[in-house]
Amino acid sequence: MSTQSPAGIDEPGASEAAPRSAETVDHPSRSDWFVRGASGLIGGPLGDHAVALDRPADRESRFWTAGRIVLALVCLTLALHWVQKSPCQDGAWQNNIQYTRMCYTDVLALYYAEGLNEGKVPYADHPVEYPVLTGYFMGALGLPVHALGADNPAINQGQWFYNLNALVLGALAVATVAVILSLRRRRPWDAALFALSPALVLTATVNWDLLAIGLAAFGLLAWARARPDRYALLLPGVAGVLIGLGGAAKMWPLFLLGPILVLALRAGRMLAGLVATATALVTLVAVNLPVAIPYRENWERFFDLNTTRPIDWGTLWYIGRYLDGRISPSAPGELGPFEWLNANIPTLNWLSYLLFGLACLGVAGLALLAPRRPRLAQLAFLVVAAFLIFSKVWSQQFVLWLLPLAVLARPRWGAFLAWQVAEVCYFAAFYGELLGTAMSRPVFPEGVFVLASSLRLITVVVLCGFVIRDIMRPELDVVRHTYDDDPDGGVLDGAPDAPWHQRWRARAAERPAEPVPV
């Protein structure tokens, strides 16, 4: 038997801990070693007699509860982001200001590049390089701005379009924090990881990724609220619709379906998993058909671009290209292996898909072999991270995909902040690379950018390692120090493993170990 130390780590050899209150709020200054140490700067961890701050979650009488503080913090973060992007808002990007101030945003640039400033309807009048729901979103906000600007020439349409997008995307970021708070009522300070993220300050409106993130977050919330009663299939269906909408905006939310299915298989709740998957795919098709049928060529622009795109900046493959000529220089006229892949894009595509597929199989195997059924957020983080690690494209704003999943999968401040520091270094190095390309002379040696790219890759891999460790050693999972099972699991939360899985594990436990040859 074991009990928990004040730091939240199980201590072997002690008597069984008393049952914890179902509504007690976790305080990071007590449970997280990094926050506990850093809290010394402001007086130390929360005291044992700080009753006003340590009351049960449903008995908060103060206005500034943990949840409201976190929501205020994300609003402050988004305001700082708006200020950081303000030098670029007028669209008059002279003297490479978009790179020297690091304020470039696709939202403003593509208002003109996609023809929205001319009143062109996405897909109908102009091919769009993004999935259809993002194109719908661009048109829904951009065409009214164009119509308003046509009657009011003094209006800076691009600036109006950017600020309208910033307002809506900011609302989706706040909603995502609200979802995290709802999923972690006993751990509200976990949401501060997202709310205070430096990556959110720098990339919130670089593109429209927060649209997919908001939809995926609400999909996870719907799944988490499902229970095995007579309405058990309603909320999985709603979750599927929301995940399908997220996948119609950016592809990555569809990766959530794999972990849902694998966990449903282990828990013997396949019907709920299949309902979520089926409704997601039906929603994805339904959203795409109105564009794919009448405007097929313009609709295929997204797929054509991703199929023919070479190795992009900051990826694993880009690092490999840099190392090609330094570790084993090729003879004149010969290409190193990564440079060869860049020249043979179909092979690069298949290799990237193969490595991602193998990683997904590894995650599925981990889910089935783990001593305790993993939490949904843990598997979702691993799958999305694997996609980014092996993808030939890793844009600066893709960090936002991992943010909510990292918070839900492993809410530990130390490794999280190390990852965020690496992302900030990459952000700065990336804009240096852009500026050097624009000026046709390097701002700093190429190795600096490769180093920043490597640090980002390494910190994501380290986070994956920590999540895998928590899966294989559930006693180290801090979320399970507060919750009995999986607060995101929905119909899976608290469910025993399926009988087939229990029998399989029992047979595996009874199987005698093979003798080791001497």
UniProtKB/TrEMBL annotation:
<feature type="transmembrane region" description="Helical">
    <location>
        <begin position="415"/>
        <end position="436"/>
    </location>
</feature>
<feature type="transmembrane region" description="Helical">
    <location>
        <begin position="160"/>
        <end position="181"/>
    </location>
</feature>
<feature type="transmembrane region" description="Helical">
    <location>
        <begin position="448"/>
        <end position="468"/>
    </location>
</feature>
<feature type="transmembrane region" description="Helical">
    <location>
        <begin position="63"/>
        <end position="83"/>
    </location>
</feature>
<dbReference type="Pfam" id="PF09594">
    <property type="entry name" value="GT87"/>
</dbReference>
<keyword id="KW-0472">Membrane</keyword>
<keyword id="KW-0808">Transferase</keyword>
<feature type="transmembrane region" description="Helical">
    <location>
        <begin position="193"/>
        <end position="226"/>
    </location>
</feature>
<feature type="transmembrane region" description="Helical">
    <location>
        <begin position="271"/>
        <end position="293"/>
    </location>
</feature>
<dbReference type="InterPro" id="IPR016570">
    <property type="entry name" value="UCP010361"/>
</dbReference>
<feature type="transmembrane region" description="Helical">
    <location>
        <begin position="238"/>
        <end position="264"/>
    </location>
</feature>
<dbReference type="InterPro" id="IPR018584">
    <property type="entry name" value="GT87"/>
</dbReference>
<keyword id="KW-0812">Transmembrane</keyword>
<keyword id="KW-1133">Transmembrane helix</keyword>
<keyword id="KW-1003">Cell membrane</keyword>
<feature type="transmembrane region" description="Helical">
    <location>
        <begin position="350"/>
        <end position="369"/>
    </location>
</feature>
<feature type="region of interest" description="Disordered">
    <location>
        <begin position="1"/>
        <end position="27"/>
    </location>
</feature>
<protein>
    <submittedName>
        <fullName>Uncharacterized membrane protein</fullName>
    </submittedName>
</protein>
<feature type="transmembrane region" description="Helical">
    <location>
        <begin position="376"/>
        <end position="395"/>
    </location>
</feature>
<comment type="similarity">
    <text>Belongs to the glycosyltransferase 87 family.</text>
</comment>
